[in-house]
Amino acid sequence: MTKSTPDPRDPLGFDDLLDQEELAVRDTVRAWCADRVLPHIADWYERGELTEVRELARELGAIGALGMHLEGYGCAGASAVQYGLACLELEAADSGLRSLVSVQGSLAMYAIHRWGSEEHRLRWLPGMAAGEVIGCFGLTEPDHGSDPASMRTRAKRDGSDWVLNGRKMWITNGSVAGVAVVWAQTDEADGGSGVRGFVVPTDTPGFSAPEIKHKASLRASVTSELVLEDVRLPADAALPGVRGLKGPLSCLNQARYGIVWGALGAARSCLEAAREYSISRVQFGRPIGGFQLTQAKLADMSLELNKGLLLALHLGRRMDAGTLRPEQVSYGKLNNVREAIEIARTSRTILGANGISFEYPVMRHAANLESVLTYEGTVEMHQLVIGQLLTGQSAFR
Predict the structure, then answer these.
(1) Which of 126, 187, 245, 250 has its CA 20 to 30 A from that of 108?
(2) Pick from 131, 157, 167: which is nearest to 238 by CA?
């Protein structure tokens, strides 16, 4: 048994479970965030805009963070655990930054990589991996979020072409994207029923992406509506590898896995801010970290954070082994985001009034996590996924 003093930032020795390549990836992303994001993020968030998004995307491409868990076409071919650690460090800086990377790699790039044609891959993936082309993923609609099967966006045949009409909502990267992966309903007469995906260059006539303003969360992130008005595409714009909801849901599973890790980055940032504050803040003649109630809060937050890290690592090892199931990702997304938002809220109580200041990251993370809590599957949807696993009964309808 070692007699060395435990690191309060890693009390369970989590780093001992990581190999040197995993630690190197984590440290690279952490250093980039410290240099390029942390000095500016409070200002970006307060302004509610990320005008530097294209520059940041190119820099993220340069360090291999975009589509990093994909193979070939300029992608890094990293492991699932390495990708998870990158998501953790990105979201420790800001959820909006992790969303940029997650939508680019786990949604838009993954859809093209997994379900696209070789022509799609060769045309789009190298530029996306380099951050020269930003992608977005059009699934959610104004009236259809948790129930994508009811989407109203339609793709109709017109000769050999496809013509798309519809609207998508809450689309990360939408107004800065060069390519959109859009999911639409098709009819039997149009070459196959059900949902199909389409690779849509955003300069196609009829496509527009007005940016959504006045957000109280994810303010350092580009969020848009997608409007498709008679968007005409050639026949080969359709993703050939999949039909039905299996396509978009497989992409969402990739993104949810990143969230399992990412939410813990926000939680870690909040906990560390609260811990440091408790040591320096003096009330009633002593640091508030010396009072039992404060220590109880810190202990509970550290416990939940480190349990979440062990769960994320377990899921990552399963993904690398090819044995991870979607229901298991639901366990991770449900638990880790729910605990992360509670850590953010409790950290705010330790900081008191200072907790609402952008001098500290806590309120910014708390507001961001309110979005993370419901996107890529609400709490209720993941509870029902797990409930179906436990009972064999579907309660979705």
Answers:
(1) 187
(2) 157
More reliable by pLDDT, 194 or 281: 281
Active site residue 376: yes
- Per-residue burial over 224-241, b if 16 or more Cβ lie within 10 Å, else e, is bbbbbeebebeeebbbeb
Record the pTM. Answer: 0.94
Distance, CA of 239 to CA of 241 (rounded, Å): 6
Structure tokens given for 118: 């070789």
CATH domain 247-391 topology: Butyryl-CoA Dehydrogenase, subunit A; domain 3 (1.20.140)
One of 21, 272, 376, 380 is an active-site residue; which one?
A: 376
Domain map of the chain by residue range? 14-134, 136-243, 247-391
User: What is the DSSP pairing of strand 207-208 with strand 194-201?
Assistant: unpaired
Which tens digits make up the pLDDT trace of 18-56?
999 999 999 999 999 999 999 999 999 999 988 899 999
